[in-house]
């Protein structure tokens, strides 16, 4: 898997591994469940995402 360094820098993850785990969950869940991104906000130096799994 190749993720652009700029994307990682802008996402400001606590850990690159957490980012990979989240990506794996979203990819495996997307077809099994309906995943809908509800909100993405960057209120300060970090982003927060809310997703609905149905």
Give me the secondary-structure topology.
Elements: H1 5-11, H2 16-32, E1 35-41, E2 48-53
Antiparallel strand pairs: 1-2
Number of helical elements:
2
How many independent structural domains? 1
Task: Determine the mean pLDDT.
Answer: 74
Give the % helix.
40-55%
* Outline: globular
What is the chain-wise order of helices and strands? HHEE
Structural category = alpha+beta
Rg: 12 Å
Flag low-confidence runs: none
**Ends apart, CA distance between termini:** 27 Å
Largest sheet entry: 2 strands, antiparallel
How much β-strand is present in the residues? 15-25%
Spatially, the strands of the biggest sheet line up as 1-2
Number of strands: 2
What this model shows, in words?
The chain has 54 residues and is of the alpha+beta class. The chain has one domain (5-53). 44% of the residues lie in helices and 24% in strands. The chain has 2 helices and 2 strands, in the order ααββ. It has helices spanning 5-11, 16-32, and strands spanning 35-41, 48-53. Strands 1-2 form a two-stranded antiparallel sheet. A hairpin with a 6-residue loop joins strand 1 (35-41) and strand 2. It is globular, with a radius of gyration of 12 Å. The protein starts with a helix and ends with a strand.
